[in-house]
Design goal:
Layout: H1 3-13, H2 20-25, H3 33-46, E1 63-67, H4 73-79, E2 84-89, H5 92-104, E3 113-115, E4 128-134, H6 143-153, E5 154-165, H7 170-186, H8 198-204, H9 223-229, E6 235-241, E7 246-247, E8 253-255, H10 257-260, H11 264-268, E9 271-277
Parallel strand pairs: 1-2, 1-4, 2-3, 4-5
Antiparallel strand pairs: 5-9, 6-9, 7-8
């Protein structure tokens, strides 16, 4: 798909804030400060490991760029650490949400949060001390270029904290192939739009909107591919995080997700968290 077309489709898709499903489950319908606190508390309970990628850094006074802001939980967490926060997103609504959150923190940095593409970051080289991008670059359609752009805008010895979907996760290697085989046998394999589009069907298991439509594009990477993609960096650490509960075909949960976060998730989790130093 041409980059211009994919950018347009991504802008439309991600205008529905990433995290909207969680907000609905909490009964949140408006972004009041109280509602956002409830959302953030639930979000950080669901992703309890996220803090270790924020609080181990000394962000005071540092220039920090976040690419892909969603509901703004991570952005507000970063900004509250005393850094000089900048935000970039392909869609307008995440930008508006993050500007609103910064206003709640009484930070006059709204102009530093803008609409733009991760494939053409609108800053000069060697601008940032840190770049965070959690679950964004694998949707751009050109993962290598996105990672190269992050490298370009980082200062020497700057640090990138990137989350990409794990191509060797339990979901990808075991659960989805078995589910697809079962559905094919039963003659029930269909994507949301009624077609037998395997890629779209799989993408919807990772990101879908309120209509059930899958994200326009998703890449999945192995640890070896991460090493290749980040070869321009001095050091690269890759950690596996996140997972699904173990569920029987009838929907019975055998092992809860929480019990798997420190074992299965650390080996074959859904996400790869990459910490790379330029």
């Amino acid at each position: 798909m041409p980059t211009v077309t994919l950018n347009r489709e991504n802008a439309e898709f991600w205008n529905e804030l990433c995290g909207t499903g969680l907000a609905r489950s909490l009964g949140i319908t408006e972004p009041s400060p109280k509602s956002l606190r409830r959302f953030d508390e639930a979000y950080l309970r669901f992703y309890p490991y996220l803090g270790q990628y924020v609080f181990v850094q000394d962000l005071q006074g540092q220039r920090v760029l976040e690419i892909g802001m969603g509901y703004g939980t991570l952005g507000q967490l970063l900004a509250s650490q005393g850094c000089r926060y900048y935000g970039l997103d392909i869609a307008m609504n995440p930008v508006a949400m993050m500007r609103y959150r910064l206003s709640l923190l009484r930070l006059e940095d709204g102009d530093q949060v803008q609409v733009g593409s991760a494939l053409d970051i609108p800053y000069q080289g060697a601008t940032f001390d840190y770049v965070y991008s959690i679950g964004c670059l694998h949707h751009t359609g050109d993962l290598g270029r996105g990672i190269a752009e992050v490298h370009r805008v980082l200062k020497d010895r700057g640090k990138a904290i990137i989350m990409l979907y794990n191509g060797h996760s339990f979901r990808r290697l075991v659960y989805l192939p078995l589910l697809r085989l079962r559905n094919l046998i039963r003659g029930r394999f269909r994507s949301h739009d009624g077609t037998a589009d395997r890629s779209r069907w799989m993408r919807a298991f990772y990101d879908k909107n309120a209509k059930g439509e899958a994200a326009p594009h998703t890449d999945y990477v192995s640890r070896a591919e991460v090493r290749r993609l980040f070869q321009a960096y001095r050091t690269v650490r890759v950690e596996s995080q996140n997972c699904d509960p173990l569920v029987l075909p009838g929907g019975l949960v055998v092992v809860s997700r929480e019990k798997l976060l420190n074992n299965l998730a650390r080996v074959a989790g859904l996400d790869l968290y990459i910490t790379a130093v330029k």
